[in-house]
Specification:
This protein is an alpha+beta fold. Helices cover 18% and strands 35% of the residues. It has one domain: 2,3-Dihydroxybiphenyl 1,2-Dioxygenase, domain 1, CATH 3.10.180. Strand 7 and strand 8 form a beta hairpin.
C-alpha cells in the first residue's frame, strides 16, 4: 500500500460551535460544504481538511486521522490481510473512506478522493 499523504483530521468536542468559530474567525480557515457529512469542515492550504463534530456524532470519533490512498478498497484489503480490522468503505460527496484501529488503539482512516482535491 502506498500512502499518498495526510488528507483529513477530525475531532469531536462538546465545544463544537466555539471550535468552529475559532477555526474560521481566528485561524482564517474557510468552511467547506461536503454532502453526506454533518461535521463542520474546514479547508487547509495543502488540500487537507479538518472536521469538527459533536461527541460520538460519527461513532467513536474523538480523534481521527485520514491517510490518502489511490484505491480505498485495495488498501483496506491489504490491511485486512495483515489482520487489521477495517470497516467497509463508506462515502460522502468528495471521498470514499474506511476506518481502522492501529496498534496504538486510535482511529485512523484510509481516504480515496472522488474528485479534484
Amino acid at each position: 500500500m502506498e500512502i499518498l499523504g495526510l488528507v483529513f483530521a477530525g475531532t469531536a468536542t462538546r465545544e463544537r460551535a466555539a471550535m468552529a468559530r475559532f477555526l474560521e474567525e481566528t485561524l482564517g480557515l474557510p468552511r467547506v460544504d461536503v454532502g453526506g457529512v454533518s461535521a463542520d469542515r474546514f479547508a487547509l492550504p495543502d488540500g487537507a481538511q479538518l472536521a469538527v463534530a459533536d461527541p460520538r456524532e460519527g461513532g467513536e470519533t474523538s480523534r481521527t486521522i485520514g491517510f490518502r490512498v489511490a484505491d480505498v478498497d485495495a488498501a483496506a484489503a491489504e490491511l485486512r490481510a495483515t489482520g487489521v480490522d477495517v470497516s467497509d468503505p463508506m462515502s460522502n460527496d468528495r471521498q470514499r473512506y474506511a476506518h481502522f484501529r492501529a496498534p496504538d488503539g486510535k482511529l485512523y482512516e484510509l481516504v480515496e478522493e472522488l474528485g479534484p482535491s
